[in-house]
Amino acid sequence: MARPKEFEPLEALDKAMQAFWLKGYHDTSIRDLVERTGVNYYGLYGEFDSKHGLYLAALDRYRDTVTREVVRELKKPGPALPAIQRAFNRLLALLKTPDGRVGCLICNAAVELAPSDEEVATKVRAHMKLLRNAFRAKLSEEPPGKGAAGDSDIGATAEFLTTTAYGLGLLLRFGCSDDYIRRHVRTALSVLR
């Protein structure tokens, strides 16, 4: 008979995600993960197979929590511009964790591991596609002739907004001021007017 788990995997995954988000993959040791999650080495490896497996699961968890909240804002009924503004506001709030201004875990993964790790690169591409498709869907709701969504290529605008969202993560991680970041968002949103 199998022993019952002595920890809740999703709670451990959330804590591991925070550790990777704060320190990155390479600078997060297995000891850091054990301390952060409260789960011993055997429990983590039994559930996630390896540090790399835990990292991949953390990227999925980020998509299912942080990114889904941003997408949820874009799916609310109403005009595109206010919805996209709300989505950016929500994103900025989510990228400021209790540990500070850690930016975007997917951006961090794209820079740190994606160039040499195809599994991570695949997750980064899937994440970008999810966000891009959400922007595209919201922009497609606007009637033709209303703002940038009706006057230009919706796909290109969705790509621009996706890149802007990732840029916000980098600006936060770098330590740019809230005023600087808000100006960046206002300038990006001006293409929709």
Find the count of extended strands (DSSP E, 2+ residues). 2
Cα radius of gyration in angstroms: 18 Å
Major beta-sheet overview: 2 strands, antiparallel
What would CATH call the class of the domain at 59-192?
Mainly Alpha
Helix content: over 70%
Continuous helix count: 10
Q: Alpha-carbon distance between the termini? A: 63 Å
CATH topology label of the domain at 59-192: Tetracycline Repressor, domain 2
Q: What's the arrangement of strands in the largest beta sheet?
A: 1-2
Low-confidence stretches: 144-151
Elements, N to C (H/E): HHHHHEEHHHHH
General shape: elongated
Return the average pLDDT rounded to an integer. 88
Question: Which structural class fits the helix and strand makeup?
Answer: mainly alpha
Percent range for β-strand residues = under 5%
Provide the CATH architecture of the domain at 59-192.
Orthogonal Bundle
